[in-house]
Amino acid sequence: MHVVDTNSGGMFFLYGHGGTSKTFMWRTLTAAIHSTGNIVLAVASSGIASLLLPGGRTAHSKFAIPVPTE
Ligand SMILES: Nc1ncnc2c1ncn2[C@@H]1O[C@H](COP(=O)(O)OP(=O)(O)OP(=O)(O)O)[C@@H](O)[C@H]1O
Q1: Fewer Cβ atoms within 10 Å of its own Cβ: the N or the C terminal residue of the chain?
Q2: Which domain of life is it from (predicted)?
Q3: How far apart are CA 62 and CA 18, in angstroms?
């Protein structure tokens, strides 16, 4: 939350074994940031993963990332 409060930005990588609260952490952060009036774009690399996030979409869908066909 510090990087949001100070508008400093950042990149974080959350990893861990199955069932170790990764989704819980993302959902909590999303709710906390959204509650401050900020916009949260929840995207994932796969459709299955995006279903775990509130309002989640795939990054390809949200940002219209082209998929090379050749
Ligand atoms: N702090 C917590 N308090 C209570 N329950 C929690 C907490 N953190 C996680 N849980 C519960 O533990 C379970 C597993 O958590 P979660 O789905 O966040 O793990 P995960 O790391 O995303 O798992 P996976 O890698 O399998 O997707 C969920 O049912 C979740 O509600």
Answers
A1: C
A2: Eukaryota
A3: 26
